[in-house]
Design brief:
- 28% of the residues lie in helices and 21% in strands.
- The protein has one domain (11-210): Maf protein (Alpha-Beta Complex).
- The protein has helices at 19-29, 54-69, 103-116, 183-187, 198-210, and strands at residues 11-14, 35-38, 73-82, 126-136, 142-153, 169-171.
């Protein structure tokens, strides 16, 4: 896979049905001239995420979309891992929000468990957002890109930007939660820069190697 590059005009299938993720990817990919379409827009079924790691689930989604379309596909599997909860919810980050997704309830569940553990001070409420991008080819080859951002969980949640657990996550070195940050602040990605969010950091590696 070394030496592979996407060119302007190439079609890239975003292997997601999540409108929040789709919007973030569209923002970050806007300047590269790719023909972007999502698995949701194509009416592809959502593959069952049976993996126990972010890498496994990212591969499942990317390869399913690449196989179904015969096109190169990019997936993301991401989530929050809370130190005091032994890394939970981890790959079950979205599952904790139930069906239909209700992340207010999911954040409350995290908070309730932290309180049960007696995790009340910032050093006891450490967490990290993780993102894995998988770029899969129809022939079965793939490339993996990882991004991690450490931070602290706050309560009550603050801000109504972003999605998921963003309002309760304050990244290290910042006074605001992800939920208080604009998309530009949260991603803060530019050529040669790492970016702030976990997805932006994985994306920076993807751009360096593929675009």
């Amino acid at each position: 896979m070394s030496g592979f590059r996407l060119q302007r005009g190439d079609r890239l299938v975003l292997a997601t049905h999540n409108k929040g993720k789709l919007a973030e990817f569209q923002d970050m990919l806007a300047d590269f001239g790719l023909d972007i379409v999502s698995a949701g827009e194509l009416g592809l079924p959502e593959p069952e995420e049976t993996g126990t790691t972010f890498v496994e689930n990212a591969r499942l989604k990317a390869h399913a979309a690449a196989k179904a379309t015969g096109q190169i596909a990019l997936s993301d599997d991401s989530g929050i891992a809370v130190d005091a909860l032994d890394g939970a919810p981890g790959v079950y980050t979205a599952d904790w929000a139930g069906v239909p997704r209700n992340f207010t309830n999911a954040m409350q569940k995290v908070e309730d468990l932290l309180v049960e553990k007696g995790a009340v001070t910032p050093d006891q409420r450490r967490a990290q957002f993780n993102a894995i991008l998988c770029l899969a080819h129809p022939d079965g080859h793939d490339m993996i890109f990882e991004g991690v951002v450490p931070g602290t969980l706050v309560w009550p949640p603050v801000g109504d930007m972003g999605h998921g657990y963003d309002p309760m996550f304050k990244p290290d070195g910042h006074a605001k939660t992800f939920g208080q940050m604009s998309a530009a602040e949260k991603h803060s990605w530019a050529p040669g820069k790492e970016g702030l969010s976990h997805r932006a950091r994985a994306f920076a590696k993807f751009v360096k190697d593929v675009l």
